[in-house]
Design brief:
2 domains; Jelly Rolls; five-stranded antiparallel β-sheet; four-stranded antiparallel β-sheet; Arc Repressor Mutant, subunit A; 8 helices; alpha+beta
């Protein structure tokens, strides 16, 4: 179950510099701190459900989450990930629409909930923040378009290479040099848009080609340029 936590002071939050709130003044941050609530989600919990209407947004303080949709046969399609400092649910809140994806935490996660009224108050009174939200929404739209194009035009091998590079860009690596996120082979397959067996086979091929190193769920990228060539990633 979700566990409520004491609210953090936004002015002193070290994660704020990674979030859309980084340019807010002290008085706005103090007001937001007074009205927000904080919660703890255990690994595997759903933060927000596809089809629901958000009453506010979550800002991830610690932890990671995946945004996914369910297909007609109940198969997941992972759209993107969220990490520390990211806002969850803001696009549906701004548009007045239902959430187009569910959000599930990949590890124990601490997140702060900012109510709808406070979000709109900040948007209406802070032009820089409004611009930041617009940029975020445009970026997500571009990523969604690229996902659709890749699923239609790239091979499974190319898509897997690109997914590995995306995970590296999004989460970075830990002290051991492995991708700093733990995903099952099924979850990787759900990102790529293919069968789990195909991902297992291709990961083994990438290992044999010395592009990556595998130890259980741990993945270490050894040759980024080679993966970029395979995935036709040029940016």
């Amino acid at each position: 179950m979700t566990k409520d936590l004491p609210s953090l002071n936004c002015s002193n939050c070290v994660k704020r510099e990674f979030s859309a709130f980084h340019d807010l003044d002290s008085s706005t941050l103090a007001e937001m701190s007074d009205v927000k609530t904080c919660a703890f989600f255990k690994k595997g919990q759903i933060m927000m459900h596809e089809g629901s209407r958000p009453n506010g947004v979550y800002c991830i303080h610690t932890g990671k989450a995946k945004l996914f949709r369910l297909g007609t046969e109940g198969k997941e399609q992972i759209l993107r990930f969220a990490k520390e400092g990211d806002l969850i649910g803001y696009r549906a809140l701004l548009s007045g629409e239902q959430l187009s994806a569910s959000i599930q935490v990949l590890e124990d996660t601490h997140a702060c909930f900012i109510p709808r009224s406070e979000m709109f108050n900040i948007i209406e009174n802070n032009s820089k923040f409004s611009l930041e939200m617009m940029k975020m929404a445009c970026h997500e739209l571009g990523e969604a378009g690229r996902l659709i194009t890749n699923l239609a035009q790239k091979t499974v091998r190319e898509r897997l290479a690109e997914v590995l590079l995306l995970l590296n860009k999004t989460f970075g690596v830990n002290e051991e040099g492995n991708l700093d996120v733990s995903l099952t082979r099924e979850e990787i397959a759900n990102m790529v848009g293919t069968a789990t067996e195909s991902v297992i086979r291709l990961l083994s091929e990438f290992k044999d080609d010395e592009y990556i190193e595998l130890k259980g769920r741990k993945i270490k990228i050894l040759n980024i340029p080679a993966l970029a060539r395979v995935g036709q990633v040029y940016d």
